[in-house]
Design goal:
The structure holds two protein chains of two kinds. Chain A contains twelve helices and eleven strands. Chain A is α/β, with parallel strands linked by helices. Chain B is an alpha/beta fold. Chain B has a seven-stranded mixed β-sheet with strand order 14-15-16-13-12-17-18, sandwiched between helices. Chain B has a six-stranded mixed β-sheet with strand order 9-8-7-10-11-19, with helices on both faces. Chain B has a three-stranded mixed β-sheet with strand order 1-5-4, with no helix packed on it. Chain B is globular. Classes of the chains: A alpha/beta, B alpha/beta. β11 of chain A pairs parallel with β18 of chain B.
Chain lengths: 291, 487
């Protein structure tokens, strides 16, 4: 008999700024390296996904209309909150994944720096991806990137925190709300990330995070008409085909990432303007120039 | 009905003498497939007729590329790929500059041929299409040796063999939109023109021979949907670019699913054109004319849903009816013609079905243009509907003809929500003399191209392409290069 019984956390979903339990009534244990149960994570259902999409859709216009400066500051605030819980994230990573404590700390640090990186992009990508066009006529013509809309994210199993942070922060910085599905094998960092979002200034619904089984959520995500872009990493060939086939009907944009571990760590690979481009549509505006 | 509709005045008594374009174009009796730098008889042994939609006369017999022909074309493109990609970029550029020049030098011939094979008025093929075709090659030529500046932090590499499928509404211009960026970025191409409008692409192939483009860099195979499918499904095609209907676009998206092929789609539209009460009305009316009756309305970005602010609706509709009455419909080769022939009998039937549906659902048809139409050929007088409800099929579906749906609105918010209430998002128009309103409306419209106080303007340096179900990817400008490089 232990002297004190541990309180085992029940990790919930993060939808619309609050933490509901899954409507499915299912959960899976999260084990530490020694096989002990340290928490339980919700197994989100299709209905949870629909709820999350609904809340992201409601947040869509507000987030797209927020000034880029404000979005940048909110992302930076996320980094501040992450930094203050650095040890907790590192411990969650090293306890529930094969990472050594040193490697876990490095992943946490890279994740925090990654959010800062995207905080800075929020008011700069427009100048890198947009331009004025020298049309042959008396017109003023320019192309501006606009957020593509709601982004669905299927994060890979590893690196569980860095990949999820990267895949979330990129659309957030350009003005897209997200619905993310966490690493299936290591969901605990995603749960903590939801808590970070809730205590940052991220408006409710802009970030929604689900834990659960990728195979159950992949198809409803690819089919959902309110998701405009679907980003996924390191899928199996059959999953890639399934996603692209299901996405075809609504002409959803699909962004398939094949980053290696070193790619995820490289800002020039994983946090460049070309990692923002999948979440924007270019709008070109013409106006006559005359007196 | 508006008061103008019942007036009998019009261009009667203002008849123009015929002013036909006289340039003769040598059209061969039959054309082969352009593969590996030479014209070849089709292995399929099948040919089909291409007609002049204004006269229904057979112009020529064109080859129908079967699977073996497509294989040969893709193989030629694949074989030519490494050499073309290795060529010094500045030299690649010079081929495209040379191509632009030869197109300018042969532009009248190509314009006449475009008009004969497709039905568009000669003044549009001569003054709009051909200048844009030449400009497109000239613009992209200069990118060939500057690509690293277009993609900061990356070294762009070619994708490989590009399969490109284009529609019949702007045959040569669409060929230019597809070929120019692909070639500038070091790719090789298999291009399929639409089955009703193959001839200008085949004359372009002759020009490619003239400029001594290395064999296999561009291959042009003619045929219909099956030929297109063979290109899309070919395992050595690494990139598919398609312009056409949303239905076919979705089908292509399913066919390339899981193959790793890159895909760009430029699909249909039901573009809103919004006129506010504070617009310059006469200019707006001219803009409406060009937004829907340019190229017989066979324009994917046609402003086919007109939203007029309620207080000026009567005035705009009167002026529009008056202007519509004066449009000259008829011989596309006549230099005074405003509205030419419908591209095919199939398309004419589609348009007529929509016009019937508009009436059946209770909208009011205004068809005041009463000029006599030629006896042969496929014709549709320009027209518009009022009393259109958002639920009407003519307010929701792409008609691809000279048919406009006119609706009214009261507030900017209403205009925006109704304009965006469509699965499409290709283009939009806004007419107002208030600068702040222009920017706010332009920002909030879900459309890849927004024309403010103008409509249907195009330029090689200006990216074109849609939001939502109008497709993805851009053509033209710096952003248009993206589809043809690996980063």
């Amino acid at each position: 008999m232990p002297e004190r019984l541990d309180i085992i956390k029940t990790c919930k979903l993060f939808i619309g700024g609050s933490f509901p339990r899954t409507e499915s009534g299912r959960s899976e244990p999260i084990h530490d390296g020694k096989g002990r149960v340290i928490a339980h994570a919700c197994v989100a259902s299709r209905k949870d996904l629909r709820e999350a999409v609904e809340s992201a859709r409601r947040a869509r216009e507000g987030w797209a209309d927020a000034s880029s400066y404000l979005r940048g500051q909110i992302l930076y605030r996320m980094a501040e909150m992450l930094e203050s819980r650095r040890e907790e994230f590192a411990s969650a990573l090293s306890t529930t994944s094969p990472l050594t404590p040193a490697k876990a700390r490095r992943e946490v640090d890279a994740s925090i720096d990654r959010v800062v990186r995207f905080a800075g992009w929020a008011d700069k990508f427009q100048q890198v991806l947009g331009c004025q066009n020298p049309v042959a006529g008396p017109y003023y013509n320019f192309s501006v990137p606009q957020p593509s809309g709601l982004v669905g994210i299927l994060a890979p199993d590893a690196p569980s925190l860095l990949s999820l942070v990267t895949m979330i922060a990129a659309p957030l910085s350009v003005g897209c709300p997200v619905v993310g599905v966490a690493s299936e094998t290591s969901p605990l960092p995603a749960v903590l990330l939801g808590e970070v979002c809730a205590t940052s200034d991220v408006p409710g619904g802009v970030v929604n995070l689900l834990t659960g089984k990728r195979d159950e959520l992949i198809e409803p995500m690819a089919e959902h008409r309110e998701i405009q872009v679907l980003a996924a990493a390191r899928l199996k060939p059959a999953q890639r085909e399934l996603i692209q086939t299901a996405a075809a009907d609504g002409l959803k944009r699909v962004n398939l990432l094949e980053y290696s571990e070193s790619d995820w760590n490289d800002d020039d690979v994983a946090a460049s303007p070309w990692d923002l481009e999948p979440y924007i549509d270019t709008k070109t505006i013409w106006h006559p120039s005359a007196t | 009905m508006t008061s103008v509709d019942s007036q009998s005045s019009g261009p009667a008594g203002w008849d123009y003498s015929p002013a036909p374009e006289r340039t003769r174009v040598p059209i061969k009796d039959e054309y082969g497939l352009f593969i590996d730098g030479a014209f070849r008889a089709p292995k399929s042994r099948r040919r089909f007729e291409t007609i002049n939609p204004a006269t229904e006369e057979v112009l020529s017999r064109v080859s129908e590329a079967g699977p073996a022909d497509v294989d040969a074309a893709v193989e030629a493109a694949k074989a030519a790929g490494p050499g073309w990609a290795r060529l010094k970029p500045a030299e690649r550029a010079k081929f495209l500059f040379r191509l632009a020049r030869r197109i300018q030098e042969r532009s009248r011939e190509l314009a006449v041929l475009e008009t004969m094979d497709g039905g568009k008025p000669i003044k549009e093929s001569r003054d709009v299409a051909l200048p844009l075709v030449a400009q497109h090659f000239f613009y992209h030529a200069g990118w060939a040796d500057k690509l690293s500046y277009a993609f900061p932090g990356r070294t762009p590499k070619p994708v490989g063999v590009c399969g490109q499928i284009i529609p019949w509404n702007f045959p040569l211009l669409m060929a230019a939109w597809k070929l120019a960026p692909a070639l500038a970025c070091g790719n090789t191409c298999v291009l399929k023109p639409a089955e009703t409008t193959s001839l200008t692409a085949l004359h372009l192939a002759e020009i490619l021979q003239e400029i001594e483009l290395p064999p296999g860099v561009v291959n042009i195979v003619t045929g219909a949907g099956e030929t297109g499918a063979a290109i899309v499904d070919h395992p050595d095609v690494k990139k598919v670019a398609f312009t056409g209907s949303t239905e076919v676009g979705k089908h292509l998206a399913r066919s390339v699913a899981g193959t790793g092929k890159k895909l760009t789609l430029e699909l249909g539209g039901k573009s809103p054109n919004i006129v506010f009460a504070d617009a310059a009305i006469d200019q707006a009316v001219e803009g409406i004319v060009s937004s829907i009756w340019f190229n017989q309305g066979h324009v994917c970005c046609a402003g086919s849903r007109l939203f007029v602010q309620e207080s000026i609706a009567d005035e705009v509709i009167d002026k529009l009816a008056h202007r519509m009455r004066s449009l000259r419909v008829g011989d596309p080769l006549d230099k005074n013609t405003d509205v030419g022939a419908i591209n095919s009998s199939t398309q004419l039937k589609t348009i007529e079905r929509y016009i019937d549906a508009g009436g059946d659902e209770g909208a009011i048809l205004h068809e005041v243009n009463d000029q006599p139409l030629p006896e042969k050929g496929f014709w549709c007088r320009p027209c518009f509907f009022t009393g259109v409800q958002p639920s009407h099929v003519i307010a929701r579906e792409e008609i691809f003809g000279p048919v406009l749906s006119v609706m009214t609105f009261r507030t900017p918010e209403e205009a925006l929500s109704r304009a965006n209430n469509t699965p499409y998002g290709l283009a939009a128009g806004v007419w107002t003399n208030t600068g702040s309103k222009i920017f706010e409306i332009a920002r909030k419209l879900d459309a890849g191209v927004v024309w403010c106080n103008t409509y249907n303007k195009f330029d090689a340096s200006s990216p074109f392409g849609g939001f939502k179900e109008s497709g993805f990817g851009r053509e033209g400008g710096l952003q248009g290069l993206r589809a043809y490089v690996r980063l």
